[in-house]
Amino acid sequence: MVLKFIEAQINRQNKHPFHQGQAFWRELSRVPGFIYQMGGWNHYEPNTAIVAALWESIESHREFMRGAHDSIVNVSNQAKTIESIRVNFFDASPLSERERYALFEAPMILFNRVGITLQVQGRSETGLDDPSLSFRLRNLEGKSAKLIPHKTNPNDVVAYESRIVMRQEPDWRVRRQVEAAQGE
Predict the structure, then answer these.
(1) Residue 175, CB half-sphere, CA atoms under 13 Å: how many?
(2) pTM of the model
């Protein structure tokens, strides 16, 4: 499995049109290889949209990019709302049920970028960390996905390249359609 992690900078006046455009991504539910997508706004940078999508493989994602991607972008009109975008892929194999919950169902999520890893921490509605919902994913490209330059702390204290707290937008969630059982 592969996690596609998107950070999009949106002009303040375009936040509402971007949010509305997310509804068109429901089409992903029919795309072969797609599993789940969620997203929301970065608490620390309110004009940054975060979208995370789980795919069966990088190959299934590439096929989507060659096929349905552009038609969804065009109908959503989101391209006009985005100032800049950063996309990274992380190895999500295997992702346990607990980790899937932390990533896709927890009301709030803390993302920390450290080198070539993405630390994911599920949070409760009150913003409290749940240690049982913490895990790390490795960047598939084997390189750091920097957003903000950082310096290594001489005392070996972790220096985060970026820190994102995101409250999930329920209407940004998309789940794969499950085929009806044969014979029904």
Answers:
(1) 7
(2) 0.81
Check if the beta carbon of residue 135 is closer than 8 Å to that of residue 183: no
From 13, 37, 26, 24, select the one nearest 76 (Cα to Cα). 24
Other beta carbons within 10 angstroms of residue 156's beta carbon come to 7
Question: Which residues lie below 8 Å from residue 138, measured CB to CB, with a gap of 6+?
Answer: 90, 91, 116, 117
Note the pLDDT tens digit of each residue in 68-118: 999 999 999 999 999 999 888 998 887 788 888 878 888 888 888 777 788
Matching CATH number, 2-175, of 3.30.70.100, 3.90.25.10, 3.40.50.720, 3.40.50.300: 3.30.70.100
